[in-house]
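User: ok so my PI wants both of these folded by tonight, can you help

Assistant: No problem, let's get them done. Here's the first:
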Amino acid sequence: MDFQTYFNDELEDHATVLAKTRADLMGPFLKTLDIWTNCAANGGKILFFGNGGSAADAQHLSAELVVRFVEDRSPIAAIALNTDTSALTAGANDLGYENVFARQIDALGKPGDVAVGLTTSGTSPNVVEALKMARAKGLATTAFTGKDGGLMPELADTALIVPANSTRRIQEMHITLGHMLCGALEQRLKLI
């Protein structure tokens, strides 16, 4: 394998997805920002969840809000539901893995909160069930996904659907968009 070509091809593929994301996602980005701002400004909490790399992104973005992203500011209430190993393993054992996030949303979520599902395919059963539970409990719902969006457009008030099929490219855009939302949310809250 020619690793110089590989290096250039990977960055070119990333740049192509970045350009498509820029062209397609401003509207959903701004709608997501509005939903998150309304939640944070009115004392709600943002509940993130996902599997694998999406779990890492959920944990990462939650920490950016609770601690800080760029600005020294008051904390923003957020939690990554995939970080509680006892709740995850008990839920998986007793209720089935597809219910591990839905059960936590049922326990912790209330109207005024936002459920944020991260799934590159848009079809992860536990993310789908959690968003259904969030809707049933009156939470706002937002999603990060890719490919054709899967079930996310039906379950989320707004979905950031990265225009790519490659999991790695979708995840690269998810963390970029997530960082952008954290930064924009900090700026928005300064104006309120």
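One down. Here's the second:
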Amino acid sequence: PGTGAQMVPFVKVFLIVATFAVFHSLTARADVSAFARRKTGLSHAAYAAVRAAISLALLLFSLFILFQEGPSTTQLFAPHSGLPAILPAMFTFWLAGMALGQIVKARRLAQFFGFEEFPKLFIYTGAYTICRHPMYTAWLTAAWGLLISKPNLLTVFYNLLVTCFVVYVALQEERQMIALFGDKYRAYQKQIPFLLPYGFLKPQIRKESAPRF
């Protein structure tokens, strides 16, 4: 009975993260989107808004479960507060803010968040020279940074699930980018790291803005 009770937090986290991952991935598919919009009469933008709201709600609920159940699992080391605890958040805001700023400047915010399908955007300057997916890297930095203030086994388990999901989604997006931009994106892949943010150690591909298609 004791072992079963100890597993409950992990089962809860797995179920909610799995629900989020399956929902977010399936509803991103073109055939699922077309079917749902045909049945509901929603526009592409309205469908994207509903999908984003549900995904966000599931993700926030997963964090709620993590914060609620985490203290009942094994503590790995003494928690820290102050500057060490906020450094990951500071890096997250800096990297995500820089990437988002580039998208806004390129006037492609609607496409980035899925409210419009075209034109697609390929940026490989600024934040996108640090890694190929700066928004995902920022997310993972914030998630793993939670270990500093919440160093329990459930946090590690949660972050492993999130990391698997992020890697899967990023790989799917890269396949789409290769289909759209071909050798230009393949050359970018060879020069800039996937998710680890050490691209600043490498020369930039170009100084000018990337082409928009």
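The CA atoms of residues 20 and 161 lie 11 Å apart. Residues 206-213 have pLDDT under 50 and may be disordered. Good luck tonight!
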